[in-house]
Amino acid sequence: MATSMANGPASAAGKSEFRNQKQKQENRASIETKIDVAAIKEKVKKAKNKKLGALTAEEVKLKMEADEKKKK
């Protein structure tokens, strides 16, 4: 009987270790899928460089000329 008592708690400890390992794997997977930091940084860079507002008169002329050349 002494051996069966010794095996009982040991097997329960083994199960809890298995659960802990499984939780760690799930946590790693969820962290990897949550945030893509590099993509966010790239979007921020692009947004900072983006011009806001209407084009200047010169830019409008240049754009119109370029469009006309493309049509021909």
From TrEMBL:
Record protein name field: KRR1 small subunit processome component like protein
Domain of life: Eukaryota
Composition skew (Basic and acidic residues), residue ranges: 16-31
Segments of this protein annotated with the region Disordered: 1-31
Organism, scientific name: Myotis brandtii (Brandt's bat)
